[in-house]
Amino acid sequence: FVRFFDGLTGLIPKLKKGLDENLYDTILCRVTALDITSSPPKILLKKVSESEVAKKRKKKEGKNKGGADGGRGGGNDRQIQVGHIVGDVKVADINFARAKVFILDNHDADSSKIRARIHVTMADALDKTKLSKKEKQFKEEHKIGKLHPFYSWKVGDIIPNVRCVAADNRDGISYVELANLAEPLPSVVSDPSHLPPGYVVSAIVTSISSTNSHHGLWVQVCPGISGFVPALELSTDPDALNDLPANYKVGTRIKCCVMQKTNANNKKLHRRNHKLPTDDDYDDKTKELQALELSVLLVSGDETADTNDKQRQMLFKPTKPHRGDTVVGRIHAKSRALGPPSLMLNLRGGHAGRCCITELADVESWENMPLGKLASLAIVDSKAENAKEHQHRVVSSDSDADLSRGTEEDDASNDENETNSSEIVQNDYPEGKYVKCRVLGNGRSKAAVELSLRDSRLEGDNMENDAVPKPNDMIHAYVVSTT
Predict the structure, then answer these.
(1) 416 CB-near residues (< 8 Å, 6+ apart)
(2) What single-letter DSSP state applies at residue 239?
(3) Nearest 10 degrees: CA dihedral of 436, 346, 336, 292?
């Protein structure tokens, strides 16, 4: 095994004399194979010497020089230009990220000096054809689902009327990016900074992140450029956000807007294992590019959007919600509660929200703690209480031993019932759950806005504060502290 400076690990097989290397030696290797379906990628290596590298470089330079002389001598070699229609191509190899192709109609150029591919972000699905069992197994192994652009592609297929979207000449070899998408074609850039805030891009979902710090979708915008869409920027439907794998399939194409950077110092967005490393020497692996911050909700086009929404689109980042807004929040129960007892939530744009315990449910649904157990769970407690009373009737009072033994059983049963009830209650507001909230306004602390989860506020326009109780009124209340 060989460890690189960027943390990746490669393997020199036994057949390539990998077992002959000494531990902790510094060696020079060439990448011979790359499996991009896993994270981090699996890398096969072959040890090479500096003389072999120099010899190969000299050979390439000679070919390059010869090609240049041939061009000056009136040869027929003609470079493929960006925007040109290349014609038909034949698929030679497919994986999740790209399809290697051969150009069939390029008679004016030396095919041995051209490396052509169609990147997944530049590909469009073909007419559906029936796949064999072996082909389906291949797609499954490479995580190419039914919604992936390459699902209907097969080795040997002819892709008609492809167009060149990018080209690069290195060491006498032309690396050509092709596309079979209908116009307008996606932009191909070499650096994320070339896509300014507000720019709308079409991206392919490459993975779903379920970590607390990054819950959302990792996407590929174009070859070498990745992006991240936080879950709160995907949809205003909390049910969809609570089950991302069912609603956002890997391989699907989504339209996003480039946001202004809100996490400029966030190094976690620099992680390379969420990108799509590809083989064929297409991408410059020496560059460490930061992932774009993207939003689906900021994509314009809704003429019925209110003034606040249009203003947020102009800013290209989520703004602080206002009183009366209905928003989606993500429960952050592990966060330090402001003005406890309360529930803390994360909102769009890095804003925080606080929901007082009295705003978790309407008064009619209040039950005992923790955090406003819903009335629907009272049935569970009722069954537990009935079981407890039944046990007391069964216990015999013939002897102190029996009574003692029965008391111990009751205590154990009570503990079990309390444990089970607590487990159920805790699931009402689990860490990471998305819920719909109504904004009540700014809180006493500038660090968070006040929210409500009460149905009466979400379903109607009830924004008024509850009436102050009068003397002799019977009211519901939660115990905040005891002395």
Answers:
(1) none
(2) H
(3) 160
